[in-house]
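P.,

For your records, the input lines for the assembly:
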Amino acid sequence: MIPELGQLSLALAFCLCGFVAFFGLAGAAWRRQRWLDALGSMVTGQFVFILLAYAALSQAFLADDFSVAYVANNSNSLLPWYYKMSAVWGAHEGSFLLWTLIMAGWTLAVALRGEHLPAAFAGRVLGVMGLLNMGFLAFLLWTSNPFERLVPMTPGEGADLNPLLQDFGLIVHPPMLYMGYVGFSVAFAFAIAALLTGRLDTAWARWSRPWSNVAWAFLTLGIALGSWWAYYELGWGGWWFWDPVENASFMPWLAGTALVHSLAVTEKRGTFKSWTLLLAITTFSLSLLGAFIVRSGVLTSVHAFAVDPTRGLFILGFLVLTVGGSLALYAARATVIRSPARYTLWSRETALLVNNILLVISMALVLLGTLYPLAYEAFTGGDKISVGVPYFNAGFVPLMLALALALGIAPVLQWKRTSPTRLWRDLRWPLAISVAAGLVLPLLISGALAWQVVAALTFGVWVLVSHLWDLLFRARRGLGRVTLGYWGMLAAHLGFAVALFGISLTSVLSVEKDQRMSPGDRDTLGEMGVLFEGVGNRSGPNFVAQRGTFRIEDGNEVVFLYPEKRRYLARESVMTEAAIDAGLFRDIYISLGEPLENGAWAVRLQLKPFVRWIWLGGLLMAFGGVLAVSDARYRRLRRSVPVGTTVADAA
Amino acid sequence: MNPKRRNRLLIVLFLVAGSAATLALVLVALNDNLNLFYPPDQVVGGEAPVNTPMRAGGMVLDGSVARADDGLGVTFILTDYQGSAFTVAYSGILPDLFREGQGILVQGKLGADGVFQAREVLAKHDETYMPPELVDIARGGGP
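Structure tokens returned:
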């Protein structure tokens, strides 16, 4: 009974989304104040009903209701309760239900926090978001119903959740990622509303900036968590594979990063207007493209969902409608935009322009590499092809270094113009320090001068020092005058530097060995000794495991590591559970490959210097994004603008 | 030319030169890293080039997996169950989902002796998921 109520709730939410779309867009166009006033309750309604549906599905998982096909395929009575809760988004249908729930949540947030917006503008924003969620719900109801029953063929036991997903990383990774993906729909809706209104001043940029920052912070966090999860759970010790599904989340991130910066220029200087609009549309379109790539199964990937052509077709159609519609609107309206460009070569505008160009090129590079196999197959009539990892690396290394170079100059640059003399005065010390550090640090860390490490450390320290230098300068005038927005920028930029350190040092200096080891065998890992003591048995709630014991001797310190080979009973599937001794400066990573004859095992031994810095950098970036939103001027913004003013007044 | 125009020209030139150089580099990198996929009948039939990086795939033939006595060398046979099969040599740890009868992708080079030297063996992380490259083979037809 409860699953049927869940499905009914979804259908009601679908209708409510239709109302929100109609009353929002039509109410704004025909100036019906009452229609616009009613939006709040309808938005609340759609959120409540999707939440009910979500609760119904969770209840089916907790109660082991295997008559629901989705539960039977993705749960098991032996599964611990917290994995039952997270199994709700462990496969296609449920994860898309979470997607629509988050979409409804963002819509509700806009309705609640957007009281400072002119009513007609808010109506259009909510209307666009309602239209989008209507599409998502239609997709859920007609192609991916999570409440479908298996009656009368109800199985007695569920097939269990994919063991890879029985993990803390999976509990938190998808919700964060979806918060980001879907969060960019807010910036998209603001852009569309601005285009519909036809008043393309800087107001919409000011309003959508905090939303874009928050969505970007969530996406950053989601990607970092996904990378961390892949690192410890897939058993390979890799943290990024340039897999199509990873690229699917990385492309909106790159475009979103460009958007966050471009919005700053539009808000503060009133320029880059049409470019910012285009970026807002692009970013959300890439989120949708990501959903298409992940859920249509057209590309080979480690974590694609099961292949279903109707689903792919639906999302493709939705994608074409959304992208086509918004670009057509953009083409029709953007011609009237006038962006007064009053800035010189050495100005913050130019630096942000360079930032945008580099990020968009990076995004295009990933897009090309990800979609090329599809295009190739279509044009050659079925020949299949894949793009190798070196392609992505070859493009990304120079682009990110160029980005770091520009980033180091950025804090010193002022709007409009900065004198080159002043630039030189403020930057010569950071420049000297970073060149020196780039030559000395690699020797201290690895005792050698690998050019990749020298380059990455020079550029990383360059970003670090020039920002701290600027902070020092500001601190002399009083730290109280430094705004939260500035602290946010600082944290995010330092995060970039930290991630740069982590990525380059791990990539170049890792020690990776695949060895055959018998109990009692010794090996070395860097300067450490590794002793394989043997393998014992252990059983968990829904699996049995063989557990290896490794003794690591690092000088006088001794660490024991216990990697496991697990066999999950319900699916008879085998999983590698790596053992990691984590540290700020290095990780020791050991996983069991497969058993060989005579008690020997294939063993993977890895020493990964500075690998934590990659995710630490991601955390810092996300933290910076949140910090910037907490800036006092956004609170002032909400308080100072009375309800009912027009777009022009608010600007 | 006034300074404002000159600056604008500089920026435009910088943009054009930068984009052109990037595009050229990207296309070269892409061209160098494309790996065509070959099913077993093309590998056996001589359509697949020798000593060129590529991808191949098929089902692991039952009873064909042989580990070396020392080290991590392993050989196995990939087949399409339609009469075409070839041997793959690999050194390293096989993925968890590697097993007999399973659809597998290998990345590497085909040797002149007809043995595929794999640098990477890919099995997918969900047993119900089939790589698009192998869907045609699994259905029992050629591509």
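Two observations worth noting. Confidence is low (pLDDT under 50) at residues 641-651 of chain A. The longest strand of chain A covers residues 528-539.

Regards
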